[in-house]
Amino acid sequence: MNKNNYILQTKNLCKTFKKQCAVNNISLSIEKNSVYGLLGPNGAGKSTLLKMITGMLHPTSGEIIFEDHAWSRNDLSNIGVLIESPPLYENLTAVENLKVRTILLGLPDSRIKEVLETVDLKDTNKKQAGQFSMGMKQRLGIAIALLNKPKLLILDEPTNGLDPLGIQDLRELIRSFPAQGMTVILSSHILSEVELIADHIGIISNGVLGYNGKINPGEDLEVLFTEVVKKNRMEDL
Known about the structure:
Elements: E1 6-17, E2 20-31, E3 35-39, H1 46-53, E4 61-66, E5 69-70, E6 79-83, H2 94-105, H3 110-118, H4 134-146, E7 152-156, H5 164-176, E8 183-188, H6 191-197, E9 200-205, E10 208-214, H7 221-236
């Protein structure tokens, strides 16, 4: 594939904390307008990798390429992020939470209504975010990440704590983004969810990218995942 079709690439990316290697020589390519599923057990290095892509952590070595140039902090204007818990002011309404961000980012108030419609939270009125269900909080977190009309949206374990209906709603929302010109990186340890959403997957175990590619028709993702995780654990012994 032509490199111009990739929105993000990492080349031999590493992150070491003291003597612990959390991310070990990861090279991956993310196609534009797709959903990329990043799979791995808890503690595999998924969040560390995403935090480097979003500038929360500095790589120990390696490269991050965004839209065919070396990543810089200026690229954050084109990246939306929801890592771990949504960053909400629980005493404020959905509109007020978004208003704080539009002021900080210098964005027009019109974006507030647009993102609330996108995540289906336009009728919450004066209800404070602290009274929202877990699913509503996740959707408000995604609305915040969407304010700057990102080309790349990064979601780390977005279905954590959601009930089955909330997971289904979120799945449909994520699948709608590529048609709107947005690429999504979705991190999860729930194989069945990623299988239903992602166009391509990467499987990380012990900081190593053990698989990177499409889910082949008829392939058992659980078997593939288990093989990759076991192989990397054996190599680590």
